């Protein structure tokens, strides 16, 4: 084919060479603008502006005519090229016909050869389709077999109660077969049954869990009682060990080297609370959540928790568990108003203890079923409620023993739960807060018991026929006079009141220590000692004072009460030692803090009562002093009648009293009596009934005083060295008066040195009165004293001087 000619540009025709008008010029410009593709707007605007659009149209028509010739030339050139191309195609027509015949032959040969092959290919494709269908059928059959096996296995597990394994089978069916079910019917059946089965498993587990919630309440109560019982047994072993230790210390204190004591310390097998005493298998079962020995089985709980985890309902089950347990705890807080708290307190606290023992085990082995914060919140609620209940019940109680029983159980509860890490300080604070009320009630009880014991006293020495009676009434309070066991029957120097009161005080100490022990306060001896002082100083001392002032009417009764006071003084030393031992402090510290005898008032009152009754008896004999011949010319050689009667009574008194009263008490009583006799003798000389007396009468009184002094000297065997001389000093006033009246220089009484040394007990007013009554027939000291012209008597002169000087002082 020939190539086409390129389009050429046609320049605008130049008008007439000689035409120089404006229209020609405009035509040229318009042609150039059209040729160059410029905007013709300015030309159109100019034509209409000048009002000559005809010129523009003329120019445009002229341009069109110039272009038509050019177009004609181009068409002629292209037509020639088309003719040449047609000629070329006609020359190729023969070649195409030969090629067509060749292809037809080749096609016939190919179809004849490929016909059998296509038949074989169709057979192969059909066989392959059948094989694929068979393979697919076998695959579906295998899948159905596996599905049936899983379904059968799930049914078997459901029948056997293995809910978790059944749930695993259901999960496997859902994962592997639901989306690949061989039929839509089977798929619909699975989609319907699987949720039903899961729902059934959930209901079954929830029912088992509900049964466990009901059962665990009873189990918790038994578990709490068992755990608190083990804590009580451990405490009792500790107390037994302390008793043995105290016995060993006491033997060591008494230096009994021939007695050998061995303290055998028992191992505490209760380190894990309720797991004590189990074999390894039982402990292992307990750690895994079950203990058939205690009936403490967490398997239903953990099974339910595990299955809910598998169902994807873990959080919901945690919440459900916590809310139900919280409701159970709230119901455990209910205190029945129909049953006294004293009867129900053990069940109340044991239920709570068991609840938190279970929760501790669930916390440690439950795999996150409950958190530490939740358990702590439950415990804080429980502590608050228990404190409220204790406050309310303690405020109502009016019996010390009831408070002690509840306090002991609460302290055991604290010991039990402290092993599991629970904080029990608030409970112990409540117990400590009510210790004053407890001791006030205990003091009130002891006051009644002591009053009953004293009211039953017959003021008779106690008779003990057997050694166990001696041990129970004497040795147990360490009030024996000697370490040697006496022969039986044994008559004690005290009455039955003493051991009765000792038992009451000892019981008070033990109850006080029992309340203060295990209450969070380690050093409580000062508290026990404070209340023991109150018991002895206020209660016992007051009761004895009341007894002395109201019930003692005879010398024998007063003597018995005085003897009892001496024994009680030894018993008080035992009380403070016993309190120190029970409080766990060394005896030397208790000895350091010992105060004076707390029964001083009663002891002094008893001795005063005894002395007063003896003085009354002596006064009866001293009335015989009125029979003394004060104007006698010769002194009585064997003493006056009154002193002989007094001596008979005093000797009888001493022989009786020395069997009951210790020496120091007997010494004080005799000193008071002898001092009273001395006062009576001096009072008789001062009294108005004696108008005058002679020197011989004074000599007779001196003999009376010597008899009394001899009696005092004879008591030296009963008292320590020096005490007998103290008895003689009780007769000092009478002795000094007699010495003054019989002295050859009575005016020496005026010498301060001599008076302080020899007459310090005499009252100068009494000396004046008595001296004025002295009459000597020979010297006539008070009067003319002899005949006229006789030499004055120097003793008379000295006595006159004494009387005059003393009167001047008055």
From TrEMBL:
Residues 1-23 are annotated as: Disordered. Residues 1-10 have a biased composition (Basic residues). One of its GO terms (biological process) is vesicle tethering involved in exocytosis. Keywords: Cytoplasm, Exocytosis, Transport. Residues 427-773 form the Exocyst complex subunit EXOC6/Sec15 C-terminal domain. GO terms for cellular component: cytosol; exocyst; membrane. Component of the exocyst complex involved in the docking of exocytic vesicles with fusion sites on the plasma membrane during regulated or polarized secretion. Involved in polarized cell growth and organ morphogenesis. During cytokinesis, involved in cell plate initiation, cell plate maturation and formation of new primary cell wall. Belongs to the SEC15 family. This is Exocyst complex component. It comes from Linum tenue.
């Amino acid at each position: 084919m020939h190539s086409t000619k390129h389009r050429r540009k046609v320049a605008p025709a130049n008008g007439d060479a000689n035409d120089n008008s404006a229209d020609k010029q405009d035509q040229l410009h318009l042609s150039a603008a059209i040729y160059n593709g410029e905007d013709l707007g300015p030309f159109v605007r100019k034509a209409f502006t000048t009002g000559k659009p005809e010129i523009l149209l003329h120019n445009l028509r002229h341009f069109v005519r110039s272009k038509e010739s050019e177009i004609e030339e181009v068409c002629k050139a292209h037509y020639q090229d088309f003719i040449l191309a047609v000629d070329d195609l006609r020359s190729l027509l023969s070649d195409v016909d030969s090629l067509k015949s060749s292809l037809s032959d080749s096609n016939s040969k190919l179809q004849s050869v490929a016909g059998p092959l296509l038949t074989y290919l169709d057979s192969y494709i059909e066989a392959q389709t059948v094989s694929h269908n068979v393979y697919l059928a076998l695959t579906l059959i295998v899948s159905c077999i596996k599905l049936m096996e899983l379904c059968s296995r799930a049914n078997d597990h459901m029948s056997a109660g293995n809910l978790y394994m059944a749930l695993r089978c259901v999960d496997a069916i859902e994962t592997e077969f639901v989306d690949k079910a061989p039929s839509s019917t089977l798929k619909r059946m699975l989609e319907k049954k699987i949720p039903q089965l899961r729902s059934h498993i959930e209901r079954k587990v929830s029912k088992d869990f509900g049964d466990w919630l009901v059962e665990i309440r009873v189990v918790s109560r038994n578990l709490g009682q068992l755990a608190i019982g083990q804590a009580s047994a451990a405490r009792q072993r500790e107390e037994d060990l302390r008793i043995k230790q105290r016995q060993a210390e006491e033997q060591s204190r008494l230096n009994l080297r021939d007695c050998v004591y061995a303290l055998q310390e028992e191992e505490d097998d209760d380190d894990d609370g309720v797991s004590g005493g189990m074999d390894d298998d039982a402990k292992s079962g307990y750690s895994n959540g079950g203990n058939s020995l205690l009936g403490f089985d967490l398997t239903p709980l953990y099974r339910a928790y595990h299955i809910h985890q598998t169902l994807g309902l873990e959080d919901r089950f945690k919440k459900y568990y916590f809310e139900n347990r919280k409701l159970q705890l709230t119901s455990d807080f209910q205190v029945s108003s129909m049953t006294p708290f004293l009867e129900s307190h053990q069940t109340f606290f044991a239920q709570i203890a068991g609840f938190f023992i279970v929760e501790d085990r669930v916390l440690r082995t439950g795999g996150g079923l409950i958190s530490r914060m939740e358990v702590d919140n439950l415990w804080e609620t429980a502590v608050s409620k228990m404190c409220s209940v204790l406050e309310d019940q303690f405020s109502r109680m009016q019996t010390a023993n009831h408070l002690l029983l509840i306090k002991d159980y609460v302290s055991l509860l604290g010991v039990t739960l402290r092993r599991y890490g629970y904080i029990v300080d608030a409970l112990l604070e409540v117990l400590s807060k009510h210790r004053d009320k407890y001791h006030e009630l205990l003091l009130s009880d002891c006051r009644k018991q002591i009053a009953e014991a004293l009211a039953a006293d017959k003021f008779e020495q106690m008779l003990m026929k057997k050694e166990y009676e001696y041990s129970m009434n004497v040795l147990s309070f360490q009030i024996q006079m000697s370490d040697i066991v006496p022969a039986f029957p044994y008559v004690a120097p005290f009455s039955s009141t003493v051991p009765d009161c000792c038992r009451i005080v000892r019981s008070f100490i033990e109850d006080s220590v029992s309340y203060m022990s295990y209450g969070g306060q380690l050093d409580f001896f000062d508290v026990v000692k404070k209340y023991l002082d109150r018991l002895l100083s206020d209660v016992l001392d007051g009761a004895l004072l009341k007894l002395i002032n109201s019930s003692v009417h005879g010398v024998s009764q007063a003597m018995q009460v005085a003897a009892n006071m001496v024994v009680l003084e030894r018993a008080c030393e035992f009380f403070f030692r016993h309190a120190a031992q029970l409080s766990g402090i060394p005896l030397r510290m208790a000895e350091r803090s010992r105060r004076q005898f707390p029964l001083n008032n009663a002891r002094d009152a008893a001795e005063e009562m005894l002395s007063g009754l003896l003085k009354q008896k002596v006064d009866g004999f001293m009335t015989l002093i009125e029979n003394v011949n004060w104007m006698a010319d010769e002194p009585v050689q064997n003493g006056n009648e009154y002193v002989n009667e007094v001596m008979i009574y005093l000797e009888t008194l001493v022989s009786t009293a020395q069997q009951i009263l210790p020496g120091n008490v007997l010494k004080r009583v005799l000193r008071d009596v002898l001092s009273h006799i001395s006062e009576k003798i001096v009072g008789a000389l001062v009294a108005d009934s004696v108008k005058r007396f002679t020197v011989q009468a004074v000599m007779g009184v001196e003999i009376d005083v010597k008899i009394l002094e001899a009696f005092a000297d004879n008591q030296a065997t009963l008292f320590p060295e020096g005490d007998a001389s103290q008895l003689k000093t009780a007769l000092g006033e009478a002795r000094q008066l007699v010495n003054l009246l019989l002295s050859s220089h009575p005016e020496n009484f005026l010498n301060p040195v001599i008076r302080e040394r020899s007459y310090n007990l005499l009252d100068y007013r009494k000396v004046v009165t008595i001296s004025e009554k002295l009459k000597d027939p020979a010297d006539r000291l008070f009067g003319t004293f002899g005949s006229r012209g006789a030499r004055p008597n120097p003793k008379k002169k000295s006595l006159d001087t004494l009387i005059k000087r003393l009167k001047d002082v008055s």
